[in-house]
Amino acid sequence: DEFWMSDLFIMQEIARPIVEQLSPLEKTELENVLERIKTPFVKDYLVFVNNSAFKKIEKNKNNKGFVLNETPNTEADKLFDEIIAKFKGKVVFVDFWATWCAPCRSGIKKMISLKEELKNKDVVFLYITNQSSPEKTYNNMIPEIKGEHYRISSDAWNYFKAKFKISGIPHYSLIDKEGNLVENKIRLHSNDSYKELIEKYL
After folding, report:
1. What is the pLDDT of residues 4-44, one digit of tens each?
2. To bridge 24 with a disulfide, which of 47, 53, 76, 81 should be the other Cys (CB 3.0-4.6 Å)?
3. Element housing 95 (H / E)
């Protein structure tokens, strides 16, 4: 059957964000896509992937250890100080990221064990994204990411971009216990080196 190769290609394109960004298709969207696919086993697989994503979202609702914060209603130049005021006395590892950014997601995945190692220390993992992360996708994804979460306005993001000299994401910064930016644009590659850096300020 000459269709199955192109069907497979369509299915992969559609399945990727469902899995990676945990954004399953709603019933009508799924039906529309299934109409484009002729091969039964490819259809079945897509339905399976979609259902699995919904199950995972359901299961994630019981997750602990992530906090979805309301962004303080304040001027952009005061916003960061207001966000980190909550964590006074702790070292804050800041991760500027987005749901659609593959390197961001793999970095987050890689640091799961680091967070586990440091969970009883005075360190907070703070995740900041902007409106380019679709709200629904964002809400589905963050229960898998332990830490403190903020989804800020485009204006605030532009201000942070200038303040932290963000040229690409993920962008990591470190704030000491007094609330000072002590490391910016951290370019380390192993959990051990992140741990060493964080412990330097603990």
Report:
1. 899 999 999 999 999 999 999 999 999 999 999 999 999 99
2. 53
3. strand 91-96
